[in-house]
Design brief:
Blueprint lengths: L4 E4 L2 E4 L10 H5 L2 E3 L2 E7 L5 E8 L1 H14 L8 H14 L5 E8 L12 E8 L9 E2 L2 E10 L14 H17 L4 E7 L5 E6 L3 E6 L2 E4 L2 H4 L5 H10 L6 E4 L4 H6 L2 E6 L3 E11 L5 E5 L7 H14 L10 E4 L4
Helix pairs in contact: 2-3
The chain binds 4'-deoxy-4'-aminopyridoxal-5'-phosphate.
């Protein structure tokens, strides 16, 4: 590969030159929103790579980027079509990279008031494999139910944006707790109006459980959490594909522990089975429980296979959700 490039405010420059300053607003005040997007090689009918690749849900990610930016009153002078072309161009130039990170952030400016601080847009790419790979339990992830609680909308009205504050304040610390518990991922909680606790999501992914053939996931708007594009895609397609039915519903800890199957889902995470849950019981004792037989369950496997086929271009009905990357210019 030649020089790795980034796109910054319309200029294609070497990634190594795309540094930002100590005095950028984002550095001190977390004024950024971003996306994580995957690039997949296309597979032929026999499962071999065709040599072509495409970007999964690119338009949907760019629409959410604008929406997240708007939540923080950030606007930028590029259309979604311009950004789409920029993403495709940078991805083609950085041949072999599998993950794309567009970021909208506030640049040079001291002081909290963001109103006159310039909004900047940058796109970088990187080679990235499996997101959940540490502390696996058989063929799935182990997770830890942390004591981190995501705040309701009345306390944190930007909870549904994909903004740095979400990760800085909650996800990162939860992830450290999961590391300390020697688990792959952290689960975060929420408190309902009656003071009841429910499990909401992971540090960077949505949470689903399966009861018989029904997938259950917390309602993102109700809980003020990020409604993932992967989750939305699965919910929109699985009934049509006759893979499972689904419903939004709350997930208290007892329900999670009693589930037939549990999985995590997101762009980076794809569909990752959860096979072991660590948690504190009411007396504060650390406990752990296998889900199912400690192995990925049938519905989770079907959904993982379905998503894999779709993103690799093997499902013709969903090819319109893949943006082709041309050969390196
Ligand atoms: N929830 C959180 C907290 C996330 O960080 C992510 C990753 N963007 C998701 C859910 C999944 O979203 P998506 O499927 O759009 O990647």
């Amino acid at each position: 590969m030649g020089t790795i490039v980034a796109w910054v405010d319309e200029l294609v420059i070497p990634l190594s030159s795309a540094a930002h300053s100590i005095f950028d607003h984002v550095t001190s005040y977390a004024t950024s929103v971003f996306e994580g997007i995957r690039v997949y090689p296309e597979w032929a009918a026999d499962g071999r790579p065709t040599g072509r690749s495409s970007i999964w849900l690119l338009s949907e990610h760019l629409a959410r980027l604008r929406q997240s930016a708007g939540t923080y009153r950030m606007t930028y002078p590029f259309s979604d079509q311009q950004l789409l072309e920029a993403v495709v161009d940078v991805t083609a130039r950085n041949d072999g990279h599998t993950y794309i990170r567009p970021v909208v952030f506030r640049g040079d400016g001291l002081g909290v008031d963001p109103s006159s601080v310039p909004v900047r847009v940058a796109i970088g790419t990187v080679a990235w494999g499996k997101y959940v790979s540490k502390h696996l339990h058989h063929d799935g992830a182990s997770v830890f139910v942390t004591g981190m609680f995501r705040p309701p909308a009345r306390f944190f009205p930007v909870g549904q944006a994909k903004g740095a504050p979400n990760y800085g304040a909650w996800s990162q610390l939860a992830k450290l707790m999961a590391n300390a518990a020697a688990t792959s991922e952290a689960l975060l909680q929420g408190e309902d109006d009656g003071g009841g606790h429910c499990i909401l999501d992971g540090s960077g992914m949505n949470l689903c459980l399966v009861e018989k053939r029904t997938l259950v996931t917390p309602e993102p708007t109700k809980w003020n959490i990020l409604g993932g594009l992967t989750l939305r895609f699965l919910l929109e397609s699985i009934e049509r594909e006759n893979l499972a039915s689904w419903q939004y519903d709350d997930i208290p800890l007892d329900r999670l522990l009693a589930a037939d199957e549990v999985f995590l889902t997101g762009t980076a995470t794809e569909v990752t089975p959860v096979t072991l849950i660590k948690y504190h019981d009411r007396a504060g004792q650390m406990r752990q429980q296998e889900i199912g037989e400690g192995c990925a369950g049938p519905v989770t496997k079907r959904l993982a296979h379905f998503l894999e086929q779709v993103v690799h271009g093997r499902h013709f009905g969903y090819r319109h959700l893949l943006t082709p990357v041309p050969a390196r210019p």
